[in-house]
Design goal:
Strand content: 5-15%
Mean pLDDT: 77
Radius of gyration: 20 Å
Distance between the termini: 54 Å
Shape: globular
Largest sheet: 4 strands, mixed
Number of helices: 12
Number of strands: 11
Oligomer: single chain
Structural class: alpha+beta
Low-confidence stretches: 1-43, 245-251, 320-326
Helix content: 25-40%
Order of helices and strands: EEEEHHHEEHEHHHEEEHHHHEH
Length: 387
């Protein structure tokens, strides 16, 4: 069953008030069955959120020998600013009309996949076929929550992929708060390489890093979204909520959401001829389950500037299957973990409590605007007045 429809257009008049009207996206978004969806119902329409801020931010660094020794980063640091960029990008993408619609699609697929019987121990147990409004309310509550309280973000030297979320049981009397429901980590080596590209003035390479990590952040936020439904760190996404290329693996809600929203997943492959070698962002490729396409540069720039258009002009990659076997050292295989093995803990309660006792930063207005400018000018990786 499909939960998709039209989209919301917003117009500001001269007085600053907001008028809202419903319209259809060009050609209509497509449901999971591939048929055009009907216009969104009235209860789907939601006023725009105040996306010009990212309050209650904490960023930590995991690079020491003790994996639980994670100092908090200053908001003046380049790493902090990069992380704020990708988190604001990701939340803005989810909040967009099409992003929210794809989130409703994903939520419906999750509930179908788990079945009513399988959800009897979950926090969200409504029959979404009969009470669709409750599903929409759940989606909107999640969007409100992660804008107001984004997850604590850990820049880790221990990861292989771009990012990972470790969920925690959070159903203990408080409303949903991602800071207590999950530990959210991004790959520190990739971010270090991105900062070096920015400082060297390599705009296109830096933009590739931003897009790669921005999409990865969207992907990982979907795992946080699953946490809101189930209330624990154990139950995985059902295997049918997946995307081609991963077989019957469970826990692939992030890939499913990417497919729902942009029609593909973004992959990064090592280019042995790139002058940056192992510090490159890699060739970014869009994989739709059948073909691989080059990621269009204009599409990349529009997305990074938050001019979201969820259709990319596709040009088939020139790579042949045999070439892919030679290049199929995906960038994550080339980088590998920076130090030691991945940090895992069966109970994150103590770690999350220590994190949540730290002060927060509120990023808004000109400060956030300056951070988001780095998509056009890498010099904005530096805070004002920083050398």
């Amino acid at each position: 069953m499909s939960y998709s429809g039209g989209y919301l257009s917003v117009n500001n008049d001269a007085s600053g008030s907001v008028s809202r009207s419903r319209s259809r996206s060009p050609g209509g978004r497509r449901s999971r069955s591939g048929t055009p969806s009907s216009t969104r119902r009235d209860e789907d329409v939601r006023p725009p959120l105040p996306g010009g801020m990212l309050p209650n931010v904490r960023v930590f660094e995991q690079s020491r020998s003790d994996p639980e020794d994670m100092p908090q980063l200053s908001k003046l640091s380049r790493t902090f600013r990069f992380v704020v960029f990708v988190m604001h990008f990701a939340i803005s993408m989810l909040e967009s009309p099409d992003g929210r619609e794809a989130l409703i699609d994903t939520a419906g697929a999750l509930c179908d996949g788990w079945t009513m019987r399988g959800r009897r121990n979950h926090l969200f147990r409504a029959d979404v076929r009969q009470q669709r409004n409750l599903l929409i309310e759940q989606v909107d509550a999640f969007l409100d929550s992660i804008r107001e309280n984004p997850p604590n973000m850990v820049v880790s030297s221990r990861l292989v992929g771009e990012g990972v979320v470790q969920r925690q049981d959070w159903a203990h009397g408080r409303g949903f708060n991602a800071k207590w429901a999950a530990m959210f980590r991004l790959n520190g080596r990739i971010i270090d390489d991105a900062i070096e590209a920015a400082e060297d003035g390599l705009l296109e390479e830096f933009q590739r890093f931003l897009l790669l990590m921005g999409i990865a952040t969207v992907h990982e936020l979907i795992h946080v979204f699953v946490a809101q439904f189930v209330g624990n760190g154990r139950d995985l996404t059902p295997p049918q909520v997946n995307f081609p290329g991963r077989g019957t693996a469970s826990g692939e809600s992030g890939r499913f959401y990417e497919r729902q929203l942009i029609g593909f997943v973004v992959q990064s492959y090592y280019d042995r001829n790139h002058p940056l070698g192992e510090r490159q962002p890699g060739d970014l490729v869009a994989y739709d389950g059948n073909q691989r396409y080059e990621v269009d540069r204009d599409w990349m720039r529009d997305m990074l500037n938050l001019n979201f258009r969820f259709h990319m002009d596709r040009r088939l990659s020139s790579w042949t299957r045999s070439t892919h076997r030679q290049m199929d050292r995906a960038m994550q295989d080339v980088r590998g973990p920076g130090i030691g093995d991945d940090f895992r803990s069966s109970d994150l309660t103590g770690i999350l409590e220590r994190m949540n006792n730290k002060p927060v930063d509120h990023i808004e207005g000109e400060e956030l605007h300056g951070i988001m400018k780095m998509a056009r000018d890498p010099r904005y990786i530096k805070a004002r007045g920083q050398s």
